[in-house]
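Final report, closing paragraph on structural work. Over the funding period we assembled a curated collection of sequence-structure pairs, and we close with a single example.
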Amino acid sequence: METNNIVKNAVEFLLFYYFGLDRKDGNDLDAILDSAIERAYIDATNQGAFNALFTSNVFPDREAVEELKTSVKGMFKIVKNEVKTLYFSYVKVDFNEWHKRICTELITRYREICDELDSPTFHASEKAGEFFTYGNAQKWVNMTIKNLYVISGAYLAMGGTENEAFFNAVAERANEYHIPLDNLILGAVYKQKLIGSDKEYFVMKYGKKDPSYHIVNDDDGTGDSYPWSGIDYPSIYEIFREELEAAIDEPPIEWECRNWISRKKQIRALKGDLTTIDD
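Its predicted structure, as stored:
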C-alpha cells in the first residue's frame, strides 16, 4: 500500500472516531458544521454550574430542565449561521468583533429561553438565567472554530473534496483565532508564568489534590477570581486573552494545540495524583 493511502486512511479513521465524519462527508458542509458545533457544545458545557443544572436535583422541576435542554439545542442554529457569516460574507468580517457578538448573542438567547419556561420553581432561582456564562460561550465558540481548524486540516490532507475553498478559508484565518479557555489551558499559563501577579489579570491555583485555576481580577483590590466556566464579563475574558496573546510568540491556536496536549499528558502521567503537577 502506498504511503499516501496509509496517511489518508489514518486521517479518515481519526476524523470519524472523533467527529463522526468520513471522506464523503467532506462534500457535505452542513454535516461538517453540525459536527464541529455539537462537539464544541459538549466541551463547553460539561463542567460548572451549567452542567450541574442539567445533572443534579438543584431544581425539583426536572420537566422544565428537560425542556431547557431541548431549547438550548436550538441555539446550535445561532452558531451555525454566525460561522457561515464569518466565512461567507462578501466583506471580510472582523474576527474579534464577530466573536464578542456571537458570545453575547448566545448568552442573551439562553436567558430568553429561561424566561420563557413555564416553571415557577425554575423562575424562583435568581441564578437560573445566569448558568450559561461568558466562559461557557467563549469555549463553545472557540472550540467550534478549533474543531473546524482540525477538520479542515484533515480534509485538505486527504484532498478531493468539493469544499476545499471553505477548508482553505478556515486555514487562512488561523492567526486570528482565540485560545479556548479551560482548566487545562489556565493550568499551562500558571505553570509557565506567562501572566504573572504583576498584571491586573493573572492566574491563581486553588486546591492541591485536584487543582482549579482561576483568572483573578486584582485591579480593584478585591481579588475576585473566576474559573473558566465562571467568567461572567466580556472584559475579563478580553483583557486576559490580550495579555496571553502578547505573552506568546506564535499564532494562539498553534500554541493552544501544543500546550493542551502537553498539559493533558502531564495529568495522565501523574495518574490522578495532581499534588505535584506544578512543581
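The first strand starts at residue 201 and ends at 206. The chain has a mean pLDDT of 85. We thank the funder for supporting this effort.
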